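Trying the structure run again after the queue cleared.
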Amino acid sequence: MPRTITAYSNPLVKHARDLRDKRHRREKGQFLAEGLRILTEARDAGRLPVQVFFAEASAVHPLVQALVADVERAGGEAIATTPAILAKLSGKDNPQAVVGVFEAWETPLDALDRDASSIWLVAERLRDPGNLGTILRTGDAVGAGGLILIGECVDPFSVEAVRASMGALFTVPVARAEWAPFLAWLRAGPGQLVGLSLDGGDYHGARYDAPTFLLTGNEAQGMPEEYAAACDLLVKLPMLGKADSLNAAVATAVMAYEVLGRQG
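Done. Tokens:
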């Protein structure tokens, strides 16, 4: 049976609010996700929150009722609360109807099955949570085997990244690694490493061999020279205007569909 919490000072509210902070997420091994659509997709992917906060007014919604029932059946806790507290948790003036506290997880490189898909996404020192979330969403759209984050990337469990992923965080495996271990893992089996680079050739005339690992560099600096040198192929997108490059997430999406259409 859901409990009702209306006080900001409640320890559960404070804990959930603190999960907006990276340090607290790491200490507790948990993160926040918000929105009925995202939480429903998480449930469909086999992941339920350990706590779900929902506005009392939304309790009549059949999807909210189903989510609450599944959380409680799995041993989690359902908490009816106020829109003001939901706004505090989400950091938005117009909060979603539900906010969930999830256990974080790690996917080691060795757990990835490179035969699971013909395309994989790799991002190096990605700094913007919106870009990370959008790349995850692209990965879901193209059926990527997963997203591999190289080096000091933004936290994929940040509220902003989870929000931008629109649920793809729960459907696309995410692994994190340093460059040397990643390259060693990649070269231990089949896989073409394709880097997006301003020094590359025409993306449209290239041959892409499955499984293709599409590497996108840091938003501001691109990828280091040694990373580019390790790629099997460097390609670039033509820039016909005055801008010198596309947004990292947009470039990744364009290339991902190009790879799918031209894999030989």
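The chain has two domains: 3-103, 109-262. Worth checking whether this holds up in the mutant runs.
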